[in-house]
Structure formats: C-alpha cells, structure tokens
Amino acid sequence: MLFAAALVFHADQAGAADQELQETRPVLETGRFYRIGVPADVHWTDTRFDVKAGQMITFQAQGGVSLQQGNPRGYCGPDGLGFSTIQQPLPDTNFGALIGKVVLLISIEVDEETEEETRNEIIEYFYIGSEQSVEMPIDGSLFLGINELVVEDNSGVLSVQFELIERGRQGRPSGRAE
C-alpha cells in the first residue's frame, strides 16, 4: 500500500481555535454503501465524511475521464495511465488514477491585516484505482480526487462506491486533543 504524507504548518501554531475545528461531520457506518461522483476537473471532492485511523474502507470505481480535453490518448479509467509525472500528488503511481486523502485540520490562522487564512493541516494521500481496500492512516476528513495537479483541462466523472468494512482500532493517535 502506497501512502504519502504531508505536514503543512505555517508560521505560528498558536492560532485561535476556529469553529471549523469543532464541527462534527457524519461518520461512516458499517453495512452501508456510499456513492459519490469524482469530477476530473476538480482538485478534490469532499465526501463529507470523517474517518478514524485504522478504519478499513473498500473503494470501487468505474467510468472514464479525459486528462486533456480533445486528446484521445489522455482518456483513462480509475486506474489512470501507465506513467507518472511530477505534476501529481502521488508521483509514484499512475497519472490520472483515482486517489484519496485524509486531512486533519490542526488550526486556522487569520492574518489581522490581510484577513488571509492559513490552514495548518496534516495530510495523508493514498492510491485507490478501480478497486482497493485502504486502512485509514489518520483521523480526519476524507477526500477523493484524480492523481493530477493540473485539472482545469480535464473532463468526465468517476463513479465511486465505498463501504466501511472494519471500524478500526481504538486508541490510535489522531493528532487531535481530546
């Protein structure tokens, strides 16, 4: 299983607690199938679900996307194309493949002068392709996307079905203060 992690911190981590940090999102239930469309021209699709470290989720995807409108060689399914580039979140997996990420929001800081927000997050990426069972690496919000950073010229949608098959272990570190 291929994972890539990113720890994104900016400036001072002592930022004010934000309402978004305390919002609760739905959690997945075992025995239910969830379906979502993942458009190829959007960087990340928010599933609107939070996951817990150690949960095992099975993903199945179908459909096709164009990674460059008008180029028939740029068409692929959820497994992507058989090469990689530097312009993708998971550089060692197929270009254009279905991937996921779990984002744990640590804090949001707002610059008092510009009112610009800086999000301090821990991000774990993982490969999905057409079918994959993935153990969630950290607690956080689940997103799905295409393994490409330049998505503006893409088209099409992958149809993804996912199911929580194992609740996960208790007591795994999540990075959140309890």
CATH architecture: Sandwich
In the CATH hierarchy, what is the superfamily? Galactose-binding lectin
Order of helices and strands: EHEEEEEEEEE
CA-CA gap between termini: 29 Å
Task: Please describe what this structure looks like.
The chain is an all-beta fold. It has one domain: Galactose-binding lectin (Jelly Rolls, Sandwich). It has 1 helix and 10 strands, in the order βαβββββββββ. The strands form 2 sheets. A 5-stranded antiparallel sheet has the order 1-7-6-9-3, with no helix packed on it. Strands 2, 4, 5, 8 and 10 form a 5-stranded antiparallel sheet that branches. Strand 4 (56-66) and strand 5 form a beta hairpin. It is globular and about 45 Å long. The model is unreliable at 5-22 and 171-178 (pLDDT under 50).
Question: How would you summarize the topology of this molecule?
Answer:
Blueprint: E1 3-8, H1 19-22, E2 33-39, E3 45-51, E4 56-66, E5 75-76, E6 98-110, E7 117-127, E8 131-135, E9 140-146, E10 155-166
In short:
The chain is an all-beta fold. The chain has one helix and ten strands.
Give structural attributes.
mainly beta; five-stranded antiparallel sheet; 10 strands; 46% strand
